[in-house]
């Protein structure tokens, strides 16, 4: 009887699928690249967005005028392709669920039956050789409804009619926007999942229905990470269905909340790493910092998004060309989307020339997709180096401070030999210079110098993996409890000024995998041996590394000297297309780095796995020292 009961239970479990639910070991090699490659983002998107110029006061003529300027000025020919509507386009949601366009502002959307359609609008953009972007929210309601309730062009009608976000309508809205209306790009905000709790004054006043918040910008523990991720996965699935040719771009806009830094790369094409940029220098520092230490989380198909360009306003207007140039150069270095936020009808030529700098556009759009790595770091000054597809480098010298400064660039920063000549080409002036070992530059306050650099590499027959973040994906980075990042500049925020206690450290991926540094920003070191090159990651991690055709992988592995735990042992394993190629002895902190060399000829996917059995791994940084692909 007992046996029959058990057998019966097993059959029931099998039928329900529960018996198959044994969790997969996340550190087991898969032989696959798990970061997103769906959608159209082999390089970061370029284009224009209405928000920084017009906020909700947007209309068809303003957008089309900027679109025409993009074509007529030659920016389109240089790669600016997307013309994106931000908030302000909607009228209301009809009782049957269909979204209606605000036809008094977008007259071409008028239809005889009143249903409205953006098809004529996207047709116009497509006929100009451009692509069209639209904007929505993952919740029922929007950002401006919560934070700018007196702004123009907010949705109108009853409580239900003003629910214009995707919540409960994902399938239908995506099919309408992409299938019927012909959009190519969608930005999805998260205010609807954040600002409409029971306690919201607008909810209390009966303006909107309550939606228990799934996101809390200030608290990871109060964000429902699996629920938010699942909704974005649902959107992605709908986009794939609505775009059989794969021509879509999914932009996540939840400002680094809900630990999106760890999963956006698997779902979307770009993902905001911070709250909104404002036209202030110190705010640029904040937004830049949220992306700059995340090169291993950007790859062809999925990019960090420190927000749109604010060139044209405030401290980035034509009276601040130094700052405006820095903004553009920095965004290009970190492979950020280049989305112009200026009213192009009135943008002075000096700023148009910045947008049109072909040499910097090429740095942003380099097909290798290696986000720049910090080669020198301080609060005042940074040096960023990006490895380009042809093996040469781009380097930016970034004076963050308000004082003029003198800076030294070394061949070592570039991972080039210091006994040979290095040539530099200034990407603003085209001027060339040469140096050996090191050279000095004077920089004005807030100035960024940016060069292409070429010379014999330190590794004559290959590259350090930290030079190639575009092919390294931290599929499992070992972070189990996300922590705020103390390295991000904390600006006085324009909308609160000095009310309250000020900006707290933001969540942006502290503890995640790093190039040439430990997860907590320290120099890589194993038993006193320092590594200027290498991958720093927490134990219980798995890195996927594409192999574009190298024959050998060489590395020295060990537990970083900064680990607080000296007892736990870490075993390092290298897999090639799921086959175990090499494994280390179990290593504790203080054990010398163990060299590993494996043949990876013909292998497509290398996986670097570091296992530390036992409880607790939060502070166990490990080192893939000098990890390199060689011929
Ligand atoms: C949020 C986004 C901005 C913009 C506004 C629109 O704040 O972060 O980029 O889209 O909403 O209301």
Keyword list:
631 residues, alpha+beta, TIM Barrel, Immunoglobulin-like, Jelly Rolls, 3 domains, eight-stranded parallel sheet, six-stranded antiparallel sheet, 13 helices, 20% helix, 26% strand, globular, binds alpha-D-galactopyranose
Helix and strand layout, with pairings?
Blueprint: H1 2-16, E1 46-49, H2 51-54, H3 60-72, E2 82-84, E3 90-93, E4 99-101, H4 119-127, E5 131-137, H5 143-147, H6 170-180, E6 185-189, H7 201-204, H8 225-242, E7 249-253, H9 260-267, E8 270-272, H10 281-292, E9 303-305, H11 321-333, E10 338-340, H12 349-355, H13 358-364, E11 373-376, E12 381-387, E13 393-399, E14 405-410, E15 421-426, E16 432-436, E17 438-443, E18 448-454, E19 462-464, E20 472-476, E21 483-485, E22 506-510, E23 514-515, E24 524-526, E25 529-531, E26 534-538, E27 541-546, E28 552-559, E29 571-576, E30 579-583, E31 594-599, E32 605-611, E33 621-630
Parallel strand pairs: 1-2, 1-10, 2-5, 5-6, 6-7, 7-8, 8-9
Antiparallel strand pairs: 3-4, 11-12, 12-13, 13-18, 14-17, 15-16, 15-18, 19-33, 20-27, 21-22, 23-26, 24-25, 26-33, 27-32, 28-31, 28-33, 29-30, 29-32
């Amino acid at each position: 009887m007992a046996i029959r009961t058990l057998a019966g239970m097993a059959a029931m479990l099998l039928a329900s699928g529960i018996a198959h639910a044994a969790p997969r070991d996340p550190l087991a090699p898969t032989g696959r690249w798990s970061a997103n490659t769906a959608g159209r983002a082999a390089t970061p998107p370029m284009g224009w967005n209405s928000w920084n110029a017009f906020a909700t006061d947007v209309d068809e003529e303003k957008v089309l005028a900027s679109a025409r300027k993009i074509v007529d000025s030659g920016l389109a020919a240089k790669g600016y392709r997307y013309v994106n509507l931000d908030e302000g386009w909607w009228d209301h949601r009809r009782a049957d669920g269909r979204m209606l366009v605000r036809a008094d502002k977008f007259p071409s959307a008028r239809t005889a039956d009143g249903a409205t359609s953006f098809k004529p609008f996207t047709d116009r953009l497509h006929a100009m050789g451009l692509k069209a972007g639209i904007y929505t929210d993952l919740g029922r309601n929007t950002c401006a409804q919560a934070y700018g309730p007196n702004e123009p062009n907010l949705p109108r009608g009853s409580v239900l009619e003003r629910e214009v976000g995707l919540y409960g309508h994902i399938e239908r809205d995506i099919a309408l926007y992409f299938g019927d209306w012909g959009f190519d790009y969608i930005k999805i905000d998260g205010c609807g999942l954040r600002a409409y709790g029971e306690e919201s004054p607008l909810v209390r006043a009966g303006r909107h229905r309550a939606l228990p918040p799934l996101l809390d910008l200030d608290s990871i523990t109060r964000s429902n990470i699996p629920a938010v991720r699942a909704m974005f996965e649902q959107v992605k699935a709908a986009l794939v269905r609505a775009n059989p040719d794969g021509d879509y771009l999914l932009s996540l806009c939840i400002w680094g909340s809900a630990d999106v830094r760890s999963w956006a790369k698997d779902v979307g094409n770009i993902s905001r790493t911070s709250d909104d940029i404002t036209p202030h220098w110190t705010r640029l520092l904040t937004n830049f910092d949220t992306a700059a230490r995340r090169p291993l989380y950007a790859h062809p198909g999925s990019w960090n998004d420190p927000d749109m360009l604010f060139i044209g306003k405030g401290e980035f207007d034509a009276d601040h060309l130094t700052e405006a140039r820095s903004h553009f150069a920095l965004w290009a270095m970190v492979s950020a989307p280049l989305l112009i936020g200026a009213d192009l009808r009135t943008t002075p030529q000096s700023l148009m020339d910045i947008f049109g700098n072909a040499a910097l556009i090429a740095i942003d759009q380099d097909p290798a997709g290696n986000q720049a790595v910090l080669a020198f770091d301080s609060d005042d000054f940074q040096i960023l180096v990006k490895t380009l597809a042809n093996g040469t480098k781009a380097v930016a010298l970034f004076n963050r401070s308000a004082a003029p400064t003198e800076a030294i660039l070394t061949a070592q920063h570039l991972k080039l030999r210091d006994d040979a000549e290095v040539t530099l080409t200034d990407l603003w002036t085209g001027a060339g210079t040469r140096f050996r070992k090191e050279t000095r530059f004077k920089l004005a306050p807030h100035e960024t110098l940016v060069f292409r650099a070429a010379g014999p590499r330190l590794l004559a027959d290959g590259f350090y993996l930290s030079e190639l973040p575009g092919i390294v994906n931290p599929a499992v980075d070992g972070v189990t409890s996300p922590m705020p990042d103390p390295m991000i500049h904390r600006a006085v925020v324009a909308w609160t000024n000095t009310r309250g206690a000020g900006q707290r450290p933001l969540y942006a991926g502290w503890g995640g995998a790093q190039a040439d540094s430990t997860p907590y920003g320290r120099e890589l070191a194993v038993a006193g041996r320092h590594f200027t090159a290498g991958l720093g990651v927490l134990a219980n991690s798995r890195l996927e590394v594409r192999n574009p055709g190298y024959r050998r992988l060489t590395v020295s592995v060990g537990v970083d000297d900064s680990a607080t735990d000296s007892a736990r042992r870490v075993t390092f394993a290298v897999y090639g297309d799921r086959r175990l190629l090499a494994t280390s002895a179990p290593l504790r902190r203080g054990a010398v780095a163990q060299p590993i060399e494996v043949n990876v000829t013909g292998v497509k996917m290398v996986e670097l796995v570091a296992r530390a059995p036992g409880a607790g791994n939060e502070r166990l940084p490990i080192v893939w020292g000098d990890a390199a692909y060689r011929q």
